[in-house]
């Protein structure tokens, strides 16, 4: 077993170096695929995080109550809302509380409110949603209670954001799937070239009674090595470029998206796994495909 | 069967352990086909072929490596690996069957010495004469101790003198107990060796005589 392993490892490295041009070519193409993939990954992760942030800000429906609605009536509405699965929490905000928050938001300009003799703000219920998707439904239910002055929910803004992220995610998925297929084809062609350049050798191996796995082993490992080398290069490039980007534009993006960008270190760990797994399996899969026909007889 | 073309038909032949047999016949008569059937490079459409007690025709693909380990193969064009030295070419056959490194280090120099090419161990095939290359190929074919040595026109590229040197080696291998089956066009070699000769013509056996060709 170990003898076979030693042979396999040695042969795969030898053939990696012997076919330098082909190795470089396929490392180059897989690296390119992984880089594009990495770009999409960084984009989607950041957009997802930003969306989560936006969702958290918009997961609240404000239900303003008429002045004649008593606290008891409000408690009944609150109770029936709380009993719904779609609602996480309902909070009663009294006029006075609302004013206090209002003052706080005005900060140093709060003295402007001192002139008010009566509190113009209504009592309200703050309804927290379990899932932002149900927002419109819950808002509609709120509107149907009696004793309600107004229901405020930023439905259209939220659904627009959700639509955009949805398209982005689906688009990224399609492009990534396409890139994976392209990479597999590229690797399989490289290994096929190796197989062809070693046809005489493989024929002799068969003549002296090599098992198919003995012949496959080094080629399989060669494919995996190509994938891993590519993964390493792509990881390094992606990490340093992303770190530079965050360092340079991070604060601007954060201001725009109301969310910090995902940290380069977090990305490094996740991309390392993704690239390694993807690179290695693209390499392995590519070499298996290229050998399938060749090792039939 | 190559498409509609029948390569060999109604061939019944028995070769005993330890025999030395020539296969002769005109070009295209099916001699190489016969050899490919034995080593399962081709699968016979009908019939039985036994190597030892194993039926090659009904053998599963997984059994083929074992079959080939029991057969040593030598070809007209040597089929050496150009980027490996003589030593490495022979050692390669042992690595393929996963022999321990110690065994390889001991046995390869031994067989090179039997073949008379010890001093060429570090040379590459292109640095060798044709006769020397064929010696390397024979060394590789017998290094794993096969039951049968099959040679398809092993002297086809060699001048008569070198060819005769090779024949002496094959005879030596045969006398050490290995069955030898050799395809050849060289009638003079067949008669000089004075061994059994089977004639194939147009895919059928048309002659089988002891002591060379009648
Ligand atoms: N791969 C193939 N496809 C189709 N026909 C083939 C194939 N290989 C051999 N043949 C045919 O089968 C017949 C026997 O061929 P084979 O190679 O066995 O002849 P041979 O006796 O070895 O000839 P030679 O002495 O020239 O080597 C020939 O008619 C040949 O054309
Ligand atoms: Mg032939």
Could you please describe the fold and organization of this structure?
The complex is a heterodimer of chains A (297) and B (214). With 297 residues, chain A is of the alpha+beta class. Helix content of chain A is 73%, strand content 8%. Chain A has helices at residues 2-18, 20-57, 71-82, 95-106, 135-144, 155-197, 199-207, 212-257, 264-292, and strands at residues 60-65, 87-93, 124-129, 148-152. In chain A, helix 1 (2-18) packs across helix 8 (212-257) and helix 2 (20-57) crosses helix 9. The longest helix of chain A has 46 residues, at 212-257. The radius of gyration of chain A is 31 Å and the shape is elongated. Chain A starts with a helix and ends in a 5-residue tail after the last helix. With 214 residues, chain B is an alpha/beta fold. Chain B folds into 2 domains: 1-70 and 146-214, Rossmann fold; 80-145, no CATH class. In chain B, the strands form 2 sheets. Chain B has a 6-stranded mixed beta sheet, sandwiched between helices. In chain B, helix 3 crosses helix 4 (101-114) and helix 4 crosses helix 5 (130-142). Chain B starts with 19 loop residues before the first strand and ends in a 5-residue tail after the last strand. The relative contact order of chain B is 0.20. The model of chain B has no long low-confidence stretch (mean pLDDT 90). The A-B interface holds A 3-4, 7, 18, 200-201, 203-212, 214, 297 and B 39, 41, 64-70, 73, 79, 81, 83, 92-93, 95-98, 100-101, 140, 144. Adenosine-5'-triphosphate binds at residues 2, 5, 7, 25, 27-33 of chain B. The site of magnesium ion (MG) has 3 residues of chain B, from helix 1.
